[in-house]
Structure formats: C-alpha cells, structure tokens
Design brief:
Length: about 500
C-alpha cells in the first residue's frame, strides 16, 4: 500500500518570492496559488517578497505587472509586501557574520582558474564543483589587488567525509545532497551585493517562513540555503518542491506552447476562476476525476500530500474547454456584464459604433452557447456590429452549387418575408417548415441562410442571428445575396 504522505498542518506562514524581471507566467502563478491555498487552508499567512536584488534585470513595470496579475487572480497577500532590495543591510550583516565565523571566505580565483578547477575535477571523475583557495597571505592579496582582481565571497562547504545536507520534502520525500556535490557557492558578488541563495536564506529565516513551496527547478538551491541558515543559526523552514510544468508534448513549458503570461490569458478572455482552477490542477488533483472546483473548494481540499512528483501538463485546449463550461454556467446577465467588461478593456467597444453595448446585450446570450474564450466574440457576433462582409470561404461554399443555393435561399427569403413578429420562435417554425417541405438535410438548408446574413460559416445560431439582426436588415441581406447569385447563374 502506498505510504500516506505528510500534510501541512497548523497555520503555515508561506511566501511567494517572484523576481520582477518579466511578467507573471503560468509557472510562477501556480507557485503563488499553491502557497496562497496553503495559507488560506491552514489559517496562516501568505506573504509577498519581491526579489529585486538583480538591479539590471528588475524593473518597476514587471513588479507592477506581477501585482496586477495577482490581484486579477484574487491572490491577495497578507502584510505589506517586502522588497528584497530594501533588506540589503540585513544581507550584508549576514555575509559579515559568515566571514567572521569562517563559514565563508573571500575567493580570488578568476574565470580561467575556475575553469581549470572544473576541468581537473572532471578529469578525476568528480563533480565539477568549485572550491576556492580559502587562505591567502597578505602579500598574495596585495598582488591580486594590483592585478585588478576583486574577491567574491564564497560559502565554505565543509568537506568532512560523508557530510551531506538532508531534508524531508513534502513532495519528494527524503532529499540528500552530499557535500562533494555542492560547490563553494558565491554568497556575495565582488561588488558586495548578495546573491539569491544568501538573500533568500536570510529572508526566509528572518521573515519566519514556515514552509517554502516552490518549483522543482529550485531543488538544488535548497541545500545551499539550508547551509547558510544553519551557519547563521537561524530557524529552517520545511520545503515542498512542486513538479515542473510541461506542454502537451511533454517538453518543458515554453512560449511555444502558447504558455502565456497571466495578463495574456486575461486578454484572451479566460475567467480568473478558469485560470485558478487550471493552475490548481498542475500537479495536484482532488480525486482524479473532479476537474471543476471553485476557489472555495480549492481552499478546502488542497493538500500538499496529493501533489505529484511527475511533471504537470499545461494544455490550452483544456483551458478553453473549462472556460466555456464556466461561461455557460453563468446566468445571461452576469455573462453579459463580464463580456462587456472584456470588450471595454480590449477597446472593442470604442472601435465599434454607434451603440455597440446595445448590440452586445442582444448578442451575448446567443454567443454564450458557443464561446470558449471571450476574445472569440468578434468571430461569433462581430458581423452584427458591421455591414455585411462576405468571407471568401463562405461565398465559395454557397457558390459551389449556385443553383441549389438560389433555391434554398430563395425559399428562406420567401418564408421570412411573412414572419411576424420577427422573433426566434416564429422564425424557427417558418424555416423548419420550409426545410420539411423541401426535404433537404438540415445542414444543406440552414448553412446557406447563415452565410447570407453573417457572411461567415461560423456564428451564433441561425434563428437567433436572424432575430438579432432584425427583419429589415435580414431581408436586405437575402435580397442582395439573391441578386449576386442570380447574376452568377445567368453568366454561367
Ligand atoms: N526569485 C526566485 C524566483 O523567482 C524565488 C525562488 C524561491 O521561491 O525561493 O525564481
């Protein structure tokens, strides 16, 4: 029987620690969500730490974008956010303390010497890890300085036989890194700025983080951070490394898979609840069959013990399907409001006059049946907002058999002229009756009607589309199509 895995119990104090060097993408958002769910589910705290120590790559725009994306997702953080760059004094104090105690040293090797060291280790069949020379005479140091060298600070990984860092990971079980696999990693650069491993270790301890939940790509950083914490005598959090995310082809998720940023997903017209629900299923499942879970249900059921070790698959096609289901579950008026908000943000309303919102209100319930992303609105109902624009492939479809098209469109026109009131039910009745009389296959009869009024092969339902367009304009479009078809026929 499978061993039951450990659960996170008690109020967990967790953090999300993004580097503001780009947009919030699927992977980062999933990490944020898992932490948030753990905090909310254990009655703990979710703190946000912006890891902006890389001055060249960090930008205020990225930070703002990450915050906006989190807000849109509803991932609210507790306490004032912490910027790592504002904690420089704490980091420098830690580096000094490590230097004083001998847990760290100034290393003077240049790139060439480091490369020789790695090559020698490889030739010896050892891991190509860097060990700097830990002691230098004052004369040697003076000589390095006169050459223009500046030292970095490296952590002195103890080389005692069998030394290893071991920790219990909620997802991966016992994880062990032998010291001879861990290099004397840099904790401060030659300009004195701390590296990620130093800053993260100091901050996790000082911010009293109880659980560090992050992507598996950080697994090899964990022993280094633990060494720093132990050398500083601070408390250690527990760790959970969550699985990597792959695309449907099982390759590591990248832009190629359409793995967009959270804001791109928003702009494509996915609902926050779809994105949250899908992110939650990246490496976690409730019971192997339930896929639609509300945020409240996720908070209630999320469990680190059910997070898998194997890579999770992010599939936009599944996202589309789930989003369509969520949209269809909305009452019409709620859907209309969400759609209007989307079209407002994207500038669609501003580009379509004179009263586009009115048309959207009419079209929304029709669109709701077919739409999977809000940005598909124009494909389905854009034709209602403009004069007829016949798409070439749609015209080709009705002119493939002009004679037949004249017949069915003419019959449609004949019936529609007398439909009163021009509403969905009477329209359906009239066209169904005609279909029956002609003995046509439904598709062969109805598709040309759709093309005549929408100019396209895909749209909202035909009866609803006719009612939405109104009698006068519908009949105009029929007459114009009949005119063109008749011309084609007489030329033939
Ligand atoms: N700033 C790191 C990142 O964005 C954080 C890693 C961590 O959670 O410690 O990958």
């Amino acid at each position: 029987m499978a061993k039951t895995r450990e659960e996170i119990t008690g109020p967990a104090r967790v953090r999300f620690a993004p580097s503001p060097t780009g947009n919030l993408h699927v992977g980062g958002a999933r990490t944020a969500l898992f932490n948030w769910l753990i905090a909310r589910n254990t009655g703990g705290q979710f703190v946000l730490r912006i890891e902006d120590t890389d001055r060249e790559r960090s930008t205020p725009e990225s930070e703002a974008q990450i915050l906006r994306a989190m807000e849109w997702l509803g991932l609210d953080h507790d306490e004032e956010l912490v910027r790592q760059s504002e904690r420089g004094d704490r980091h420098r104090a830690a580096v000094d303390k490590l230097l004083e105690s001998g847990a760290a040293y100034e290393a003077w090797e240049n790139e060439e010497e480091l490369e020789q060291m790695r090559a020698a280790a490889r030739a010896d069949k050892r891991a190509p890890v860097v060990r700097g020379r830990r002691n230098h005479t004052d004369d040697e140091i003076a000589a390095f300085r006169s050459e223009g060298r500046e030292p970095v600070t490296r952590f002195a990984v103890s080389q005692a036989d069998d030394a290893a860092v071991e920790f219990t990971d909620y997802v991966r079980g016992t994880v062990r890194f032998a010291h001879d696999q861990i290099e004397d990693f840099v904790i401060a650069r030659s300009d004195g700025t701390p590296t990620y491993n130093l800053a993260a270790a100091v901050d996790d301890t000082e911010m009293e983080i109880s659980h560090v939940v992050r992507g598996e790509d950080h697994l090899s950083n964990t022993p280094k951070q633990i060494l720093v914490m132990r050398a500083l005598g601070g408390s250690e959090p527990r760790y959970a490394h969550i699985p990597l995310i792959a695309g449907p082809d099982k390759k590591r998720l990248s832009k190629r898979h359409g793995a967009a940023s959270v804001e791109e997903l928003r702009d494509a017209g996915y609902l926050p609840k779809t994105v949250i629900n899908s992110l939650a299923l990246l490496g976690w499942s409730y019971d192997d069959k339930t896929t639609m879970l509300s945020v409240e249900e996720l908070i209630e059921h999320f469990s680190i013990a059910r997070v898998s070790k194997s890579p999770a698959v992010f599939d936009l096609a599944k996202l589309d399907k789930m989003n369509g289901r969520y949209l269809r579950l909305m009452p019409d008026d709620e859907f209309t409001e969400v759609l209007l908000e989307h079209l407002e943000r994207s500038g669609y309303l501003a580009e379509h006059g004179p009263d586009p919102a009115e048309t959207v209100r009419v079209a929304a319930p029709l669109v709701k049946r077919k739409i999977s992303r809000l940005n598909e609105y124009d494909d389905l109902a854009g034709w209602l907002h403009r004069d007829l624009e016949m798409q070439p492939e749609a015209w080709e479809q009705i002119t493939a058999d002009t004679k037949h098209s004249i017949q069915v469109i003419g019959a449609g026109l004949g019936r529609l002229q007398s439909v009163e009131p021009f509403e969905v039910d009477p329209i359906r009745e009239a066209l169904s009756d005609e279909l029956h009389i002609l003995g046509e296959a439904a598709r062969d009869f109805l598709e040309p009607q759709r093309i005549v009024i929408t100019g396209q092969t895909i749209s909202t339902g035909i009866y609803e589309s006719l009612a939405a367009l109104g009698k006068e304009e519908s009949l105009n479009r029929y007459r114009s199509a009949m005119g063109k078809l008749a011309e084609l026929w007489s030329d033939a």
